[in-house]
Design goal:
The structure holds two protein chains of two kinds. By secondary structure, chain A is mainly beta. Chain A has four helices and 24 strands. The longest helix of chain B has 20 residues. The chains are: A mainly beta, B mainly alpha. Chain A: InterPro entries: F-box-assoc_dom_typ3, F-box-assoc_interact_dom, F-box-like_dom_sf, F-box_dom, Gal_Oxase/kelch_b-propeller, SCF_F-box_component.
Amino acid sequence: MEDNEFFLPHEIISSILKRLPVKSLLRFRCVCKDWNDLFKTSLFIKEHLHHSSHHRGPSLLLQCGYSTFSMLDSDKKTLLPPSAPSVNQPVYIIGSSYGLVCLQHSFQLRVSGSLFLWNPSTREVQCVPQIKNNHFCRIAFGFSRVVNDYKIVKIFDYKPAEVYSLSTGSWKKVEFINRKLLKGVGFLGSFAATDQAIYWLSYHNQIDILSFDLATEVFTFIPRPDVQYIHRHIRLIAYENKLALLSGIEFWVMEEATSGGSGQRWSKTKVFGGPCLRSLHPLNIWRNEVVFDFEHQPKVGINLFNLTSNKLKEFLIAGNYGIRSAFHYVETLASIGDRN
Amino acid sequence: MSSSVEAITVLSSDGDEFKITVSAAKLSKPLNWMLEDVCFSDDCDEVPTIEVNSKTLVKVIEYCEKHAPRANSGASDSDAEELKKWDIEFMKMDVKDILFHILMAANYLHMEGLYDLACQTAADLMKGMTVSQIRKIFHIKNDFSSEEQEQLRRQHPGCSFD
């Protein structure tokens, strides 16, 4: 085959392109009309997202002060400030799921201020339309692979929950069987989102876990693991797309029951430690490393504790703000503005 | 297939003969099917043709022979590390001249590992290229009208068509 007659078939070109970072794809939309159109198709966006979440693996998005973010690259070598969202209000991160980040403007954590959806890779940011009220609420954000949609969930006390779908661009009310039980949801720590459900810790006489199925929009309570010691920094996280619980130095993962069985089963994966770790607060687990924040002014940053080698590595963050939270972040081309 | 066969002979699209060991050929589904086929029985002299040119087939066979022991028996972590390094060295080749041909061959021969490796190598090389360099290696014409270019520039300030 002579070089001047050699053309790669469309499907091969597409499978090379889905391995490129969003930054390169945005540059290459100027190559030709075909490529510019391809990058907007939902199939290509889906395949690219799948590659970026399963093969490249997540980066770590860190919330420092209000509107101050930092990103630890998936190769763990560089700490970069991502392009800050162009929002004229101080914002903090509610959640980060499959490439989109939900931001909230508020100085009062539990009252819903303006909400934004942000794609740090394409730099797109949009305000989420909502009816504002001063009701006490907990907000969560997740992506459902089943329905290929991003959703924001607001839980109120004694009121139906409200769910926003990015694909429809609208809110709807979702009733919960016993509203009384919602009162204790989300008081302990934050929420965790897998590609199927959002989970909150709930405290109502005892600690339970509330789950919200992102596809069927149904709330259910599931049992918590048999934690020996309930740490004040107890929190739920998503670990390898499974629900996991961190309580001090204990780390539990919820495994789906094997076929034939029903429900889920908790397994204690690790008690990580050494006395020096007891005083630190685990924020998340990222690529086999426990992420802890530390603040010894003027030094602030994160520690990464490797679960295999048991080694601790320090990353300093420029600025005066301690790290408030740490989220997994993968790149996507998904657009917030014009989804059909 | 006779159990005494350890290597098979195939023809490239240029008509050259190549030998490939049975365990290496198993990395490709179509070659594996051929192995089970009558073509390689003792009483058959016909040599099957692989629609891949000689230059590319040499590289594909080199890859298969290197990866076969691990694919057939599994390997330790240190072997996997060594193989990763070998892959990086192996992929140091010209994009247009050979890498794209390897991609086509890996696709045609259903070799997932080689296909992924070649796609990733191409993607990594593309990261550092300009838009015009990309058009050149893929033989693509800039088909945006000047109005369309102007519109894209307005929507995405800083984007370059060169």
